[in-house]
Amino acid sequence: MTTTRYTVTGMTCAHCVSAVTEEVSAVAGVTAVDVDLASGALAVTSDRPVDEAAVAAAVDEAGYALADR
Length: 69
Prior knowledge:
The chain is 33% helix and 33% strand. It is α+β, with helices and mostly antiparallel strands and 69 residues long. The protein has one domain: 2-Layer Sandwich (Alpha-Beta Plaits), CATH 3.30.70. A hairpin with a 4-residue loop joins strand 2 and strand 3.
């Protein structure tokens, strides 16, 4: 298992967390997603390394963005 951490910008409520969780969970290989609204932290657990561009695209699809790393 691999866990990669990101920061999501623009989330303001539980619906935001739900939208990000749903979209990132759909990325191939992702087995778990944990989003912390207060800090914007996003932890993506996968059975193999996941392409950061795929995660960024999923977050974008939810209406938010990854902070610069």
